[in-house]
Amino acid sequence: MSVRSVEPVVTPAAPGSSARPTPGGVTVRDLVNLRHLQATTLAGEAGLDRRVSWAHVSDAFDPWNWLEPGDLVLTCGYIVPEEPMAQARFVEHMSAAGLSGIVIGVDERCPPLSVEMLAAADRVGFPVIEGAHTVGFSQYGRFVAAANARGEDHSFTQIARVHGEVMASLREKLAGTEFVDRLSRVVSCTLHVVDPEAWEPLIRGGGTPDHAWKLAYDGEVSRSSGRAPFVMNLSVGDQTALSMPIPSERSACLIAFPDGDSRPRLAVLQQIAAACALEIGRVDAAVERARRSGAGLLHEALNGRLEPAALTALFHGRRLEGDLRALAVDGQPASIDRIARRWLIRGVPFLLGEIGQVAVAVFRSDDVPQTDLEERTALERWRGGLSDPFVGPGNLGDAVRQARWALETVRPGDSAIASYGDGSPSFLPRTLAESELTADRVLGPLIEYDREQGTELIKTLQVYLECDRSPSRASELLFIHTQTVNYRMARIQELTGRSMRSTGDVSELWFALRALALSQTTH
């Protein structure tokens, strides 16, 4: 390692010093004063009294995202940037994250330490130490571990408290923010459990930090090659926060805002992240239960299998009263799952099921403003149709038909939400009876064949035409062999008397499929 035009500042041990740690924990000065470590202070002498909680060998180019405040970075130097200004920022980042200092071993892989880097270290009081080639980094670790052994008791106590809160949440059936608030008190932080992509809460009653924190989060992820590291130090203005990934099947992270000057230990925060993963799992289970029971009730209601009084009572029990609306959505399953989760977390009562390839939801008009649906449509890139407001489950069938009708006014491939009555394509049937007649006239043989043989010719035709008559693309979406698609299409042409080579026949089949979608209200 070479240093450009800088005289090292050697901090000698006091006469007769035994180099024992100062009261309250070991400091960087204590390590420099240990003669057997042969450490030399190059810069940042004003920070020699920084406490050292752990000495950690790091090969990360962004150690501030992997270590916690009080950690001493031990490196052979190849993580130090080449450019002088980048070296200065490297020091500033470590200092801002609360790291106690950096020990750089003598190694040919270390670039020359610039005047700019050492000046930055002096400016922020961040110790830059040269480690002797003959001294292993393990010597630093052993001394720090022995000196701070008692200090770990507090972390163990906090981890035990986290485990205790998890057990209490199971006994007392705590959930959502009530559970997370208890965890917050363990580490004296305000905690948020969020989806970092949609920037939405993942627990009931939860909130999200301001959008400025989303920008700060995305910026740090971008600087970390697009992947969130173990911990990220975020800052917006004068406020700071820590972000840590939550181990979950979905994208999730924990955002912690310290209530005071002290920051939580990462080992404790990691336990809290694991506890939050359990809460996310509970929300997942609740969403699945709500979707299944809601889909069953929706199916029973649309098929007229329930007495009006019983149906009204069931709607009342789900708080589905007053002005209701029906929503039909043509979107990805993950998008439908996100809207169900969003409503459940917000306490919005809803029913959600499927009719053919379309998701159908019922909710209270006041709970879900149309502007909210428009924003969700732009985010999820789906097609949606919205019914007029209606009162009582007796009008559910008409409302679902209206939503389906509105959906069909949005062209396939577009992303928009339409309300019933906003517009209707002149080429589509105008009534339910006309829709059924058109679908039966063109697709009747396919519908009957699918019913008798248990095949999926209608679905195959739909996917085939949506894929611009590409057998290979259709086979990928249907999870079948290309030859199977070709066989089915030959059978479809035989049964309908229409040819895929005729533009007129293809158009007639396409319009018939849309008429069939309009006619399907209950299945």
Q: Summary?
A:
The chain has helices at residues 28-33, 84-96, 115-124, 137-147, 153-172, 177-187, 211-223, 266-302, 308-317, 333-346, 370-380, 396-408, 432-453, 457-466, 471-478, 482-496, 503-519; strands at 40-43, 54-57, 71-75, 101-105, 128-131, 189-195, 200-201, 232-236, 239-245, 253-258, 323-330, 350-355, 358-364, 383-386, 390-391, 416-419.
Itemize the secondary structure elements and their pairings.
Elements (H helix, E strand, L loop, with lengths): L27 H6 L6 E4 L10 E4 L13 E5 L8 H13 L4 E5 L9 H10 L3 E4 L5 H11 L5 H20 L4 H11 L1 E7 L4 E2 L9 H13 L8 E5 L2 E7 L7 E6 L7 H37 L5 H10 L5 E8 L2 H14 L3 E6 L2 E7 L5 H11 L2 E4 L3 E2 L4 H13 L7 E4 L12 H22 L3 H10 L4 H8 L3 H15 L6 H17 L4
Parallel strand pairs: 2-3, 3-4, 4-5, 14-16
Antiparallel strand pairs: 1-5, 6-7, 6-10, 8-9, 9-10, 11-13, 11-14, 11-15, 12-13
Helix pairs in contact: 2-3, 5-6, 5-8, 6-8, 8-10, 12-17, 13-17, 14-15, 14-16, 15-16
* CATH topology call of the largest domain: Beta-Lactamase
Structural class: alpha+beta
Q: Main sheet, how many strands, which sense, barrel?
A: 6 strands, mixed
Count of domains? 4
Mind telling me the CATH class of the largest domain?
A: Alpha Beta
In terms of per-residue confidence, which ranges show pLDDT below 50 for 5 or more consecutive residues?
Answer: 3-24
Please report the distance between the alpha carbons of the first and last residues: 74 Å
Structure summary, number of beta strands: 16
Helix content: 40-55%
**Total count of helical runs of at least 4 residues:** 17
Approximate strand percentage? 15-25%
The backbone outline, from C-alpha atoms, is: elongated
Q: Mean pLDDT, rounded to whole units?
A: 85
Could you say what the CATH architecture of the largest domain is?
2-Layer Sandwich
Q: What is the CATH superfamily of the largest domain? A: GAF domain
From the alpha carbons, calculate the radius of gyration and give it in angstroms: 32 Å
InterPro entries: CdaR-like_regulators, PucR_C-HTH_dom, PucR_C-HTH_sf, PucR_dom
Protein name: Transcriptional regulator, PucR family
Domain Purine catabolism PurC-like: 30-139
Domain PucR C-terminal helix-turn-helix: 457-515
